[in-house]
Amino acid sequence: MSASASARKRVDLINDPIDRSLRLFAIPLAFSFVVNMVYSLIDRFYVSRLGDAAIAAIGSSDQVVFLLFTLVSGFAVGTGIIVSRRFGEGDHKGASRTATQALVGMAVMASVVTVAVYLCMPLVPVLMHMTPEVAELSTAYLGMLLIGFTCNLLNFQMFSIVRSTGNAMFPMMVLVTTVILNAIIAPFLIFGFGPFPELGMKGAGLATALSQMSGTAIALTALLRGKTNMRLDFSEFKLEFDLLQRIAKQGFPASLQMLSVSLNRAVIFTIVSSYGTQVTAAYTLGLNVDMFVFMSVFAVGIAVETATGQNLGAGKPERVFGFHRSAIKQMTILMVSLAVIVWFFGRSFIELYSRNPSIIDEATRYLHITVFGYVFFAAGLITVRVMSGAGSSVISMLVTSGCILGLQLPLSYILSHGTHLGSTGIWIGITIGYIIFAIVAWLVLKSKVWMKARV
């Protein structure tokens, strides 16, 4: 199959068998997320040669970027929800119009956020209670990373648009291209070689930024030329504020939902930082393993969300529940399998990035506790994705935020600072939070109140 044909390939989520179509759509998505994670892992692999403080710095910086990403990326989620519904209804012209308006809106918002962050960047180390060494390295890395931040958000928007049509191949192809580019140029910019100066942490951030910018050029060109199932049309373009408002109405709760997750993680980093640089580095490395595992969960979540929007648009609500059951069944099998692998081989992964026995032991302890939450996290996230796919972004947000910020975070603090467990209490609190999340999400799904939303 040619590259052009692969870019156009889509899965029929409305008519094809549920189990099969879910896998066909989710597998390229999962691979895309894993590839996206490689950006950070490549940086961590090279930067780990600069010391433990560098590992802690890149972990803290990534949390800042993730926090900023959530402030705007919900707009892309809202776009995807509306595009998938129009696509399910057979209104391809309306889907294209929504996509074009949304991309321009994202470009404006992303640029404003980037400028604001540059102006406020000196406050970041203070707010996150970084040590002076970690603060210096983090600022250097973050400053370069922000060069490509607008492009990073535009990529997310374009990928969300294309995926909403059932095409997961094109985003995967673009991500693979950019991650290969990052892997090639990162060592030259970090350590210096020939005409390239040694930039250290700045080089790691710059390599990622340049790769993201190249991805934007590729994706935008393809969308303008109609190389995917969606074509952007600027021939008679003018901003339609009512449409942008509807997208924002869907996207704002999604941003709040992701923001709650981001804030939760940032605060946990702050709690972890009170135990020193080594525990912070251990959490950073342990979280990397979890994120690799959860890439498949995020992929299936987006697949279920897209399938929900398309099938409700096509008047087939019974398939929505079929996709949910199929996703829970398949992800339970996968999460149990991955939990076993992480339990026995997680330590070996950690040893690739650190030779410090204290860091390795703490990160392994983290993994041996959090693996018991894998199945529950998957069940909870898939369930709230059904709600958001139906247009009930507010309900999805309330369930996620309430469990993550209202329960998981306080539990982590109380168990770590109010008992003798120390840092282990944080890991236990995270796991219990996942279990509560799954239970609450299932109870809300069963109520069917989320099916009343209009898109």
Largest sheet: none
Mean pLDDT: 87
How does the overall form come out from the CA principal axes? Answer: globular
The class by helix and strand makeup works out as mainly alpha
How far do the termini sit from each other?
36 Å
The percent of residues in helical segments reads: over 70%
Q: H/E series, N to C?
A: HHHHHHHHHHHHHHHH
Number of helices: 16
The number of distinct structural domains comes to: 1
Q: Low-confidence runs (pLDDT<50, min 5 residues)?
A: none
**Rg from Cα:** 21 Å
Give a quick set of tags describing it.
455 residues, mainly alpha, 81% helix, 0% strand, globular
Concise account of the structure shown:
The protein is an all-alpha fold and 455 residues long. The protein has helices spanning 3-8, 18-47, 52-89, 92-120, 124-127, 132-145, 149-163, 169-191, 201-224, 241-273, 277-313, 317-351, 357-370, 374-389, 393-417, 423-447. It has one domain (15-452).
Fold blueprint:
Blueprint: H1 3-8, H2 18-47, H3 52-89, H4 92-120, H5 124-127, H6 132-145, H7 149-163, H8 169-191, H9 201-224, H10 241-273, H11 277-313, H12 317-351, H13 357-370, H14 374-389, H15 393-417, H16 423-447
Helix pairs in contact: 2-3, 2-8, 2-9, 2-11, 3-4, 3-6, 3-7, 3-10, 3-11, 4-7, 6-9, 7-9, 8-9, 10-15, 11-12, 11-13, 11-14, 12-13, 12-14, 13-16, 14-15, 14-16, 15-16
Describe the structure.
- This protein has one domain (15-452).
- Helix content is 81%, strand content 0%.
- It is built from 16 helices and no strands.
- Helix 2 (18-47) runs antiparallel to helix 11 and helix 11 (277-313) packs antiparallel against helix 12.
- The chain starts with a helix and ends in an 8-residue tail after the last helix.
- The model has no long low-confidence stretch (mean pLDDT 87).
